[in-house]
Design a protein that fits this description.
CATH class: Alpha Beta
Number of helices: 7
Shape: globular
CATH architecture: 3-Layer(aba) Sandwich
Number of domains: 1
Strand order of the largest sheet: 3-2-1-4-5
Radius of gyration: 15 Å
Strand content: 5-15%
Largest sheet: 5 strands, parallel
Order of helices and strands: EHEHEHHEHEHH
Bound molecules: iron/sulfur cluster
CATH superfamily: HUPs
Helix content: 40-55%
Number of strands: 5
CATH topology: Rossmann fold
């Protein structure tokens, strides 16, 4: 029996390496990189390069979407002063999940998910309902998992240290860079 096709939205290599390692054996896995929130562009390219390295190591295909900064700025307009975990982050999660779900639905994937729940301040109970709702809209099942759990954080930390993978010290957007959230 052929494996189910799984699209994993990844925010960065440190958050996703242990997940990619776990999923690649059980699914026909594709990594999906869509993160127009990352600022500045130099940082975006740095994080993307490390995701490419992870994918190349295990020969996992990667979909590299456009860096739609203007669209992201429009999506969070008026929410610039929100704290991490607030309304700006929900818009940011929604934008990335919508694109992943849409791509998965249009390209015949069975399941999709996101590495976002790996982030120490990112709550699965905010991210998963968004994932489910976009999954229903585009006809693809959302795999809800709190990837922080199950020893994956420790495993991921060791894996990125072994490979000397770049680990950022802020979430991604210009506001998180200013506040180092
Ligand atoms: S803090 Fe992180 S999740 Fe929140 S809006 Fe900025 S990049 Fe997105």
């Amino acid at each position: 029996m052929s494996k189910q096709r799984f699209l994993l939205h990844t925010c960065c290599a440190p958050c996703s390496i242990a997940i990619v390692d776990e999923l690649k054996s059980n699914y026909d896995l594709t990594v999906f990189f869509y993160n127009p929130n990352i600022h500045p562009e130099e940082e975006y390219l740095k994080r993307k390069k490390e995701v490419v390295r992870v994918c190349e190591e295990w020969n996992v295909p990667m979909v590299d979407m456009d860096y739609e900064v203007e669209k992201w700025n429009d999506a969070v307009k008026g929410l610039e002063k929100e704290p991490e975990g607030g309304a700006r982050c929900s818009k940011c999660f929604a934008m990335r999940l919508k694109h992943a779900a849409e791509y998965a639905g249009k390209n015949g994937f069975d399941i999709y998910s996101t590495s976002l729940t790996s982030g120490r301040n990112k709550k699965a109970d905010i991210i998963c309902p968004l994932g489910v709702s976009f999954g229903e809209k585009y006809g693809v099942e959302f795999h809800c998992e709190d990837w922080k759990k199950g020893g994956r954080q420790e495993k991921g930390k060791k894996m990125i240290e072994d490979r000397d993978i770049y680990r950022q010290d802020y979430c991604g957007c210009v506001y998180s860079k200013a506040g180092k959230v």
